Amino acid sequence: MKYAIMSDIHGNIDALQSVLDETKARNIDRYIFAGDYSFNLPYSNQTVDIIRTIPNAIVAKGNEEGYLDDYAKQNQSTWTDGQMQAHYWHYRNLTAANHKFLRGLPEIVTFNDNGTDITVTHKSSDLYGTVEYMDFSSRKVSEKYQDNFDGRERILRDMQEFVCTNKDFHTAIKPLTGGIYIFGHSHIQWYARHEDKVFINPGSCGIPLDGAPGTPYSILEIEGGQIRITEHRAQYDTDKLIENMKKSELYKAAPVWSEIMLWQLVTRFELAWPFLEFVKKYADDTNDSVRPYSKTTWTKAFQLWIKQKSDPVAYCNFNSKCKSPKGNDYNSL
């Protein structure tokens, strides 16, 4: 049996379609999806519509899908902050059929392929805790590799060495039975084996954060008791996606978060968490205790963050008052 594995599409229909187009020639028997199909990019409905039509697909719930249950219990009239506008927009724009599909997904899927047990979930922390994230979260990968990035092969090699040698990791996975464990969430593509356990993270199809070009997915082959894993990167027109996103209703509703997602598409490393930490510091420094952050705090913090990053082009893309990257407005915040 040959499986194509994807995770963390985040509404990036172009990335999803590029993988599906590429895998047509790879004789895939089944598709496995490990969560986070919606939010962040504008095409959640189109993405979910496609996944729902794939025969015999194995689909697990991600943390983004879990938010739908929380939002359903809230009073939408209170949704006036700046921080969560992207999530609010997606919640309101998902079709009823897609709401039902996403909210009904299982958090963990287990099945057997000719004697090999396979578990699919969204987060590795659901399986063995957070020990992996101490060194290989998207934030840690950015800190360790971005300044001297020489290809993601080094990240994979370091991750596999971690799995083989880290005693805390070995202790964490000891309760797991033998088999294959598939998950996403970190947006970092990797796979590794330790004793009778195999771990596969296909990376983020929609917003990869491991520095490499292309949209990642993995292929798992099981034949005659043998397991083979290969990593792949499909190609699509990222510039076209960015251009279309800037024209989207999502961008109008949530420009700050949309800009951060666009930056991540370009840099291919983590930017969201550093920004969230900056907003918290800005709010604390201004004695603003309102959470989620107000539109004023959210937007002002973003403008200051860009300025401190010394990126006048990005600043002017966001700030309509800026006349040019070299204009005086950039220094007048």
Explain what this protein looks like in three dimensions.
By secondary structure, the protein is α/β, with parallel strands linked by helices. About 45% of the residues lie in helices and about 15% in strands. It contains 16 helices and ten strands. The chain has a five-stranded mixed beta sheet. Helix 2 (about 45-55) links the parallel strand 2 and strand 3. Helix 11 packs antiparallel against helix 13 (about 255-265) and helix 14 (about 270-285) crosses helix 15 (about 295-310). The longest helix is centred in the C-terminal third of the chain and has 14 residues, at about 270-285. The chain is globular. The termini are far apart. Residues about 320-333 have low confidence and may be disordered.
Quickly describe the structure.
Helix content is 44%, strand content 17%.
Shape: globular
Distance between the termini: 59 Å
Low-pLDDT ranges:
318-333
Strand content: 15-25%
How many β-strand stretches?
Answer: 10
Cα radius of gyration in angstroms: 20 Å
Estimate percent helicity: 40-55%
How is the largest sheet built, in terms of strand order?
A: 3-2-1-9-10
Structural class: alpha/beta
> What pattern of helices and strands is seen along the backbone?
EHEHEHHHEEHHHHHEEEEEHHHHHH
* Count of helical stretches: 16
Average pLDDT taken over every residue = 93
Topology:
Elements: E1 2-6, H1 13-23, E2 30-33, H2 44-53, E3 58-59, H3 63-72, H4 85-93, H5 96-103, E4 108-113, E5 116-121, H6 125-128, H7 133-136, H8 138-145, H9 153-165, H10 167-173, E6 179-182, E7 189-194, E8 197-202, E9 215-223, E10 226-234, H11 238-246, H12 249-253, H13 255-267, H14 272-285, H15 295-308, H16 312-318
Parallel strand pairs: 1-2, 2-3, 5-6, 6-8
Antiparallel strand pairs: 1-9, 4-5, 7-8, 9-10
Helix pairs in contact: 11-13, 14-15
